[in-house]
Amino acid sequence: MTRAELQRITDEVVACRACPRLVAWREQVADEKVARFAEEEYWGRPVPGFGDARARILVLGLAPAAHGGNRTGRIFTGDRSGDFLFAGLHRAALANRSTSVARDDGLRLRGAFVTAVNRCAPPGNRPTPDERDRCLPFLEREVAALEQLRVLVALGSFAWDGALRSLRALGQAADGPKPRFGHGHEAVVGRYLLLGCFHPSQQNTFTGKLTPAMLDAILARAVHLAR
Predict the structure, then answer these.
(1) Model confidence over 153-175: pLDDT tens digits?
(2) How far apart are CA 178 and CA 189, in angstroms?
């Protein structure tokens, strides 16, 4: 049932045209391209989550990159952020390879599922609150479908907030005040554990705000908590 539901969600995500601004932008980017990818055919549609249907760990990003997931059709695939993330997932034994360049490159996740709050590449990497809210039901359904899920790793404050909103919609809430995002912060949210990690953006990784060792520590903690 889990696999079938995840496939239904994927089919609905890919067909979604609920946000006119995002539809226009993702298709414009796919049509105009950039010089280094001028010969490639862009995906240019919403990007579904992917991974192990038995996942106990969900890794949550903000949205596909304009020339990453929006080009390749797989989240965190074909851009520098994805290079950093999947190298870490491989070191944590959650992925069978350390690079992710295309949907059909043979990458497989073990015990992990990777997805995003928003499924379309947004202008300036900034979805509006309405665009976020229209997309969140897809995340809610993924979380519900992953029956063995225990830990969510939020890459950045936008993902942290999206995770809390989705879990609350599923009847899972943290006790006390709303948990605040921070790298290494942890929160018990109903039956789930939420971990905060700086986003593997080039701005963070090039400046050393997020290092491979820092990512490794978060993923090791997630693996430990998911047992």
Answers:
(1) 999 999 999 999 999 999 999 98
(2) 10
- For residue 184, the SS3 value is coil
pTM over 0.85: yes
Read off the tokens for 160: 């942290």
Name all domains of the chain by residue range, CATH numbers in brackets.
2-226 (3.40.470.10)
Which helix (DSSP H) or strand (DSSP E) does residue 177 occupy? none
Contacts of residue 98, Cβ cutoff 8 Å, sequence gap at least 6: 86, 87, 90, 91
pLDDT tens for each residue of 169-206? 999 999 899 999 999 999 999 999 999 999 999 999 99
What is the rounded distance in angstroms from the CA atom of residue 212 to the CA atom of residue 33? 30
From CA 213, how far away is CA 219, in angstroms rounded? Answer: 10
CA atoms 26, 44, 78, 221: torsion sign = positive
Q: How far is CA 161 from the centre of its chain?
A: 13
184: left (phi over 0), alpha (psi -120 to 50) or beta: left
Question: CA 204 to CA 206: how far, in whole Å?
Answer: 6
